[in-house]
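ingest -> validate -> predict -> emit
validate: passed (alphabet ok, no gaps, 344 aa)
predict: started
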Amino acid sequence: MQLPNPIGWTAGGAIRLLDQTLLPGEERYLELDSVESVAEAIRSLRVRGAPLIGIAAAMGVAGAGRRGGGAAGQGDGLAEVRRAVAVLGATRPTAINLHWALRRMERRAERAVKTGEELGTALRTEAQAIWDEDRAMCERIGALGAPLIPAGATVGTICNAGVLATGGIGSALAPIYHLHRVGRGPRVVVPETRPLLQGSRLTAWELSRAGVDCTVIADGMIASRLRLGDVACVLVGADRIAANGDVANKIGTYGLALAARAHQVPLYVLAPTSTIDPAVPDGASIPIELREPDEVTGWRGVRTAAEGVPAWNPAFDVTPAELVTAIVTDRGVVPPGQISRLMD
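emit:
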């Protein structure tokens, strides 16, 4: 199974990052060695997916600690880390993994300064731990989610919640890869995911590279495809899960969930426990990122909407808990109303 490697360290300690905005036409890796370059990569979706954003941000903070904690001293290094946390935290408001990882890195920096550890080394180790833990969580999600998929099934998804969005084999795609390894991989229906086509550009690309049978459809075809009756279940990721089980995910997920409910197709949300935000009571309290209108009115510099027509471009929507069959995390599978059990 051939899977891409979207992130890594260079020999000099910079971040080696696959530029996802160029896929599937070009595989180009960037070397990022400043907080500003990492922030730009997150904001422009060169790196995306809630868990992978958190990993990239943690690596960016580690780089800031390495540069700031050298000749300048530990105190100045901590100030540089806090500046990095502020810059990176302002890039994407919805994905809770970003802010979870940044808080963890800041606490680790404070502990290192207090105990006299070398700041850069401590932060590099912590960022690697966040990545390693996410990889293990992906494997666990895959193992727990696999039994939910009937043998020989066709499944649906939306956006990209696979290798390109996480530190491992994905969240929503993890059960698919888990089953594919043992020769029982399902077929996958992939909505294109307007306006930036993460489904057709990214999910279909990585699934096809891995040898998984997949078919791309336009977003407006979702209900018609479910009506055929051949889709056994829908697997989606999450950027934030509220305390009541409401789920923020890529725009279009809510519509997919409504269509799945209308056709009695179970919808499973798969995400690491770091995506659950117990401080947010419900979906109405989740901040939803609004992106630039030109992502909707054109494509790669070519305008497709009539001149002067405005666009509304939320990056995410909220699927109410009552439309979710179950939430699958690395700690277990529960109905959405019982996610508090996973946080004990």
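The chain has a mean pLDDT of 95.
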